[in-house]
Design goal:
single chain; about 300 residues; alpha+beta; Phosphorylase Kinase, domain 1; 2 domains; 3-stranded antiparallel sheet; 9 helices; 10 strands; Aminoglycoside phosphotransferase domain-containing protein; Kinase-like_dom_sf
Amino acid sequence: MHTETVQPGLFTRLAQIGRQRATQDGPPETLYDRHGVLVVRVGDVVVKAHQADREHGAPFLERIRLAGALPDLVIGALGPPLTVDGRTVTLATFGEPVDPAQELPWEEGARLLAALHSAPVPADAPSWGRPARVARLVSRLEDGPAEDAVRRAFTTLPAWIRGEEEEPAGRSRRLIHGDWHLGQMVRAPGGRWRLIDIEDLGRGDPAWDLARPAALYSAGVLPPRDWERFLGAYREAGGPAVPAQDDPWTALDVPARSLAIQIAATCVISAGRKDRPLDGAEQAMVDACVRISAAGDAA
């Protein structure tokens, strides 16, 4: 059990809130404590303090309502958000996270996404918005060869992703998770897989939900077998993000390149803060940026 945290006072407050709502006993434990987010489990309840610098006003309330309308796909919040020590806090039912020691559930994740992408889009569904995270991360890069490689790759992205133009009209609009990876899946009570983390849930281009595994695959970090399992299951489930038979990269190229650059920037920033060299997977992401630059703008 992990209880240490860089936010001990907040941990205590979240544990108290969890005890009030939990229906099963259990000591409080830290599930996640990174990037300004703290997640504490108490019995069958999870209490999450969201990032202080993110918008949690009306659009976030709309995402909570949207998640509540998708109980077969998403574990939503147990009621409206709270404010605790100036932080937005939500509660949700605990689900067992993906076990990295077991066979990874790529097919199950693909089917969840295909079902989400195929669901009816409510008229009042909030917009996911442009993928602004990559631009924010690149703007935080310092000087150095790896940083320069990431910046050069960033210039090959379309202007609307770089924040220089409005997003083009006419792009596919489906319900999307907005920040999908295997860490965004849990086994809910009863054993069914569900999506978690609804801060980006809304209307958007479903190709962006496939972008992270596509980026890792293109960089050589995700094994081809896992990528084929994921993409094959998504297509078999009727997922609309990629063509059923034709080249999937016609839809995935820009999202995958964007996520490769975003991941590489995250790796470089993290290594710099800890004054350590890039590890093998991190260097592979930077090498992918070099290849992106060499290929030029394919958008």
